[in-house]
Amino acid sequence: MKEESLTENKIYTVNIWKYNSNGLYDYERDNFIISSFKTEFGFFYKDINNKISFSHTLEQDTDKKKYLVTLQKKDDKYILYKRFYTNLPINTKTVNNLLDQIWYVVKTNSIKEKKFTSNFIYEIKKNDIIKIGRMKFLIKDMNIIGKDIKKSIETFIPYEINELSNIKRDENCRICYSNDNSIENNPMISICKCKGSMNLHLECLKKWIKSKLQIKEINNKPGISYIIQQFKCEICKEPYPITIKNNNNYYNLINYNIPVGQNYIILQSLNLNEEKNYPFSIHVLIFIENNYSYIIGRGHENDIRISSISVSRIHSRIYMKDDKFFMEDLGSKFGTLVLAKEPVYLYDGIIYQIGNSLFYYGKEDIKNNNKDDNNFEKNKKSLSSLGEEL
Ligand SMILES: [Zn+2]
Ligand SMILES: [Zn+2]
Q: Which pLDDT tens digit goes with each residue over 366-385?
């Protein structure tokens, strides 16, 4: 806890001026602009130049100015709300449209000097969605020996097939060429965009996936990574769902071993529709004891290696402490984020990211460092009069 001072906590917003970075905020960059706002009820907007402004009234979105987030006070605490927060849970189709949601910025534990470091230590919960660079992961399952697992709201829903009837009887399975649709627990399914012309037996598809699956032991640790380079239809390129629901039965397309009687986390990759061909992966991380950890990054030396340029060489760490799991950032360029679910409270020293804007709440003054930005003086003048300039 910080010492109480006479200055009140304020909201500081930080944003990049010059370019749209696909929802990645570059924490190493110092070409940004900071505004500070009193903590009071109202609405934040972002204009066409990425500038953030505040208003006491809710305004219509225009081409030039879009609503970002609402600030409200409730029981002596401040809360951030999105106006439209209805797109949870997320499914295979919508998982890549989360950039404008509210994300926690996970505490950075790094010797590197950073401009913005969150104080917020993040305890991992089941169903969390984590973002490491551009790569998203679901905490699909977890266990701590002798403890009830805290779940957050269900975020990712399985793909449902309700209408098997649109598959004609005479359509053959693309793998075994049979049209037998009568075997129990082996329905003929059609789960990609080639609806009707790409029919597969569930069991045939599972066998095909199994033949493509690479199983990789994690060096010197009891975890296992399951990797599949192309988890999608070879014709229409639609990614396959991980779980299929049909007539209240759930079927997993990928079989992996769930540890028994151990502390574990199961991470599942969620970059299903990215243009680039990132492999699909499931990581079963077993934690032998407290202080056990797994390091995630682009470098070969990591426990979980992610070969995306948006992931730093050494990016983040998942560790077990006091019979809980935590996430920390190891000084990465684009940070480690966790999708926030309402209500999103403001605590001293917390940072939220929405798109490529940061909302920092605290007493500390953050100094601008915009020497390289020629437009800064001009931009500064156009800042909203409702926000105090730094
Ligand atoms: Zn078949
Ligand atoms: Zn297809």
A: 554 444 443 333 333 322 22
Task: Please give the Cα distance from 181 to 187 (Å, whole number).
Answer: 6
- Backbone phi, then psi, for 263, in 5-degree steps? -80, 125
Which residues, in sequence order, are CB contacts of 82 under 8 Å at separation 6+?
69, 70, 100, 101, 102, 342
- Tokens encoding 297: 């990054």
CA of 193, nearest ligand number: 2
Find all residues with CB under 8 Å of 212, minimum gap 6, and list them: 228, 229, 230
**CA 172 / ligand 1 centre spacing (Å):** 8
189 Cα to the center of ligand 1, angstroms: 10
> What per-residue confidence (pLDDT) applies to 373?
41
Please name which of 329, 328, 353, 326 lies closest in space to residue 339, comparing C-alpha atoms: 353
Q: What is the pTM of this model?
A: 0.83
What phi and psi values does residue 379 have, to the nearest 5 degrees? Answer: -65, -40
Which residues are close to ligand 1, an ion, with C-beta < 5 A?
A: 173, 175-176, 201, 204
Rounded CA-CA distance 125/128 in Å is 6
| Dihedrals phi, psi of 273, to nearest 5 degrees | -120, 15
Amino acid at 311: V
Percent of the chain with pLDDT over 70: 75
| Ligand of minimum distance to the alpha carbon of 176 | 1
- φ/ψ region of 215 (left if φ > 0, alpha if ψ in -120 to 50, else beta) reads beta
Instruction: Say how far apart CA 133 and CA 310 lie, in whole Å.
Output: 5
